[in-house]
Amino acid sequence: MTSTYKRGDLTIDQQVALDTAAHRLSKEFAGTFGAETIARFLQTSYDEFAEHGRVTNFLPLLAERFARQRLHALARVEGGGDGRPVVLFLCAHNAGRSQMALGFFRALADQNALAWSGGSEFADEINPTVVAAMAERGIDISAEFPKPWTDEVFQAADVVVTMGCGDACPVYPGKRYLDWELDDPAGKALADVRPIRDEIERHVHDLLAQLDLPSV
């Protein structure tokens, strides 16, 4: 595949990694999206993180993971859904509350629903205290990463849950919106994050009941 990433700010290793990612995504979405669409989503996903200052060796991997999520969302928007509900969890930095909600929802809903998360001003990394709090409940969110939201992800969601992002959270017609009033775990000690975690878990159980989904 011809590289579309010959930018001056990319190292040779990053160029190779992005081209390899594009090849993987092209195989994964063969018959759904063409190489041009996949390259565009991969490039814009890379740019989102690079412009945010995340110039690290992991940028191509983050771009690939984010592009994959966006392509799955776009496929659903264009009629490729499988009937499962999609929930989008949003907070300001996608580093604490929305990541805990995502972790609980995926663990409890299992394969019965899909869930994504995003932030209006996404952080560089997940709050490590939040990761520790979730690990106490047997849920590993250490591999997750803060990310923005995009139009196709919003359009694919059936339910949008907001947590402290205020007016920064966009409103799309036809979506079901829920707002959970939760303390921000940023800067808090583990003992103070636990009650927030437990409240989020209760909210997730209630949401699963509202969606008529069984809890694992």
UniProtKB/TrEMBL annotation:
PANTHER family: ARSENATE REDUCTASE. Its EC number is 1.20.4.4. It is an enzyme of class 1 (oxidoreductase). SMART domains: LMWPc. Pfam families: LMWPc, Phosphatase-like_N. The keyword Oxidoreductase applies. CDD domains: LMWP_ArsC (cd16345). This is Arsenate reductase ArsC. Gene3D superfamilies: 3.40.50.2300, Corynebacterium glutamicum thioredoxin-dependent arsenate reductase, N-terminal domain (1.10.8.1060). One of its GO terms (molecular function) is arsenate reductase (thioredoxin) activity. Keywords: Arsenical resistance, Oxidoreductase. InterPro entries: Phosphatase-like_N (IPR048716), Ptyr_pPase (IPR023485), Ptyr_pPase_sf (IPR036196). It comes from Microtetraspora malaysiensis. Residues 85-210 form the Phosphotyrosine protein phosphatase I domain.
